[in-house]
Write the structure tokens for this entry.
Amino acid sequence: MRDPYSILGVKRDARHEEIKAAWRTKAKTVHPDANRDDPDASARFAEVGQAYDLLKDPKKRDLYDQARQAAEKKKRGETIMQQREAAREAAERAKAAEKLMEELARADVRNRAQTGQKTDGKPETAEDIVERIFGADAQNDPKVQQAAEAAKAAASGTKSDIPGTGETAQPAAADDKSTPASLAGNLFSALVRRFRTPQPVAEKAPDITAEATITVADLLERKWVTIGLAEEREARFQLEPGMTDGHVVRLKGQGLKLPGMARGDLAVTLLAARDDAFSIRGFDIHTTLPISLGDAVLGCETKVRTPLGEENISIPAWSGSDRVLRLAGKGLADGKGEYGDLVIELRIVLLEKPDEKVTDLMRHMREGLYL
């Protein structure tokens, strides 16, 4: 997302009223209905909305301003940090190279002495040197192994293929002082990156929020949801067990990006459609079933519509509008292997037209007259 202040065309110290007025003006200008011939209108309209959503909230705005200031400060200090890092790495390389040169020189002397004495003792190889200096784990790196083989061939003074070069190492002369230096360079180039001090994790930019309207059927069928973002981006995710109305889906690395900082996350809040025939409370699905006065008093067998089709249910006699029926396991998956219920709320409804018999019966009951 670009700078929200630039998107709305306001100064960084703009008051809330100025930001709101700028958003209204900008939204009218870039609204898709007013730019039907512009394929990018929807993306620009979404970008304006996200910019206003960030700046209208004092907490989000303050967090963004702090992150932006930190990023600018970090960028200004990049040159100095790079110079310091380069100097540190140079010192590290010099120290490691010096250590390798000394070890390889000692190993070369020992190898020559053992070869001249013709003893049964095995001369120290480059692998032994690497393990003694850096530990046994270093041998698991293919680059270390390749460098060690090259060092072994040159240090032992025998003909051997050097992996990765396609060349054959020639016997080293007794007074060839370049051999230890060559071995140090080969080994160091493979090892210095492996044992360098890890760099600190980059600071993360603030998260951005969005909302997605879904239906009960979407959750049951575990459909994919697409969120339109600024910069002509889209974020997609699949509905999974454990998601319900009000659930927040966090998409890592899909949020705001600022210079010198890791991209933030996108937090999407799921909102159940309010005009749907079903509502959600936790993992239970709620629906209403209208019944007649006679069925409420006498009870009956009927059908109720569910998100996955019709179900047969029995309504007990003398069921009022406060009566609730449950179909166990017909709700949403809670992500732990269990399911919510389908909750049926009964609603007594009268006939469309007044019925004289029903009216007369109610009058007699109210006035204490019984037939």
